[in-house]
Amino acid sequence: MTTSDAAAFDTADGPDPQAAPARLEHRQIVTVLSGLMVGMFLAALDQTVVASALRTIADDLHGLTAQAWVTTAYLVTGTIVSPLYGKLSDIYGRRPVYLCAIVLFAAGSLLCGFATSIYELAAFRAVQGLGGGGLMSLAMTIIADLTSPRERGRYQGYITAVFAGASIAGPLVGGVFAGQATLGGLAGWRWIFLLNVPLAVLAVMVVLRVLHVPHRPVRHRLDYGGAAALVVGIVPLLVVTEQGRAWGWGSGRALTAYALGLVGLIVFVRCERRMGDAALLPLRLFRIRAFRLGSVLHFTVGIPMFGAMTTLPLYLQLAQGMSPMRAGLATLPTVVANVSVTLLVGRLMARTGKFKVHLVAGVGSLTLALLVFATLRADSPLWYVSIGMLFMGAGLGAAMQTITTLAQSEVPRADMGAATASVNFFRSNGGTVGAAAFLSVLFSLAGSRIGERLTAARGEPAFRRLAEEPENARALDGVLRTDGSVNLEDSAFLHALDPRVAHPFLDGYVSAMQVVFLGGAAVGLIAFVIAAWRVPDTRLSAD
Predict the structure, then answer these.
(1) Residues 359 and 477 in one domain
(2) Over the stretch 373-382, which tens digit does the pLDDT of each residue have?
(3) Which of 73, 112, 341, 489 could tie 397 with a disulfide, CB 3.0–4.6 Å?
(4) For bias kind Low complexity, which ranges apply (predicted)?
(5) Phi and psi dihedrals of 25, rounded to 5?
(6) How far apart are CA 156 and CA 158, in angstroms?
């Protein structure tokens, strides 16, 4: 980056927040991207590694039904701090704030490596989220700083390719570590988190070397009151989403959580109005139609996207009996479709400036994927599961970058950091709701449905004889409670059961999964209607 490039951000009277940045050559943009991509690979690899090994981790910590917290805790903190990262980077510059995000992520990873319970792991994942929340939103903000609306799809494709690479490497790494009983005196899965520390050191070195982008300071007050109110508004609602099946959806504790969340959201809106331009989520941005639609679509699409990404590995490992590594490799159709469609759509957008057709097709493809998953059985062939994965990968490849482009398309440059962080906030919120709701509904239904199938199976003398065999009886010890309910905290017993005895358990799990996938398809259909009927068919500016 030359001195003249940096000077292009300044006027005679100082920095001009509305001035367009100096146009960089493709080579210069790719150099900057290389710094972003290393940091993003760190976060993306962690997500895919954890997803592929989560069942093993939950079994080891005896918290299978509480595993949603490991995902949602990360998403909650990442969601809340995303808008703050946008503001901080506007004030202090993109690079130093990005470096802080990497360091926080590494600190959380180190803590996760020594967690002793599922809830402690969730708490440390929340620390990880404090860093991870900045990695994606800041990368998208920097791309928006340096490119025109029409070019963004092309360069966002590079970032999607990073996630695709992580999707390939993650299951392999996660499967190798999760498959090791011990490694270096620690349980194998713990190295999934500890591996992030040296990777973070590498990321910091690369970012310091290549991530040089001009900075035009924007004076902001930080909306700490809004952030606190947002925590009060979001966390109780997520707690009741996760615990509602145990508490009862209309219990006193659930009603208290609803009320506390509602009060927090009301206070948050009042704080944002009072803070004006300094608000965590500036309310004036919602007067921009494209931003408003992009935020709604990010939230709506985030629910089935994260829900499916959380539930599908469970299907592959529980119903299909795959190891974490095999389950991860089985999702390669999603990765291939995602990369191919992302790169294709990015080039088409850069050439034509049109994005609505890709947005509508992407959301429609994601909805079809959920419908395919809703028809899965315990014995469905892998080729049939792969059809759903192809639809999901293609849908996400077409939809996610076009929704971000839509939200950014009419936002002033001075607000790009806050706006990009805000739309990522809504996507993360949708993902948090999706992951928590999918797993909560899954385990709410699984217990009763497994119980029904076990009751029917026990009526058959052949099943009773099999269940009473010494190996099967030992595996079932502690799983079947005296009151007739089933202990679902640890699924490891399924490996030791005769497949004929395991069938009622697997069939019950899959029956519950069908319901959650169908619910995800319904949410996807809502997003499809919004994309098809509300998003204008505009052409992106080439400037």
Answers:
(1) no
(2) 999 998 899 9
(3) 341
(4) 1-12
(5) -75, 160
(6) 5
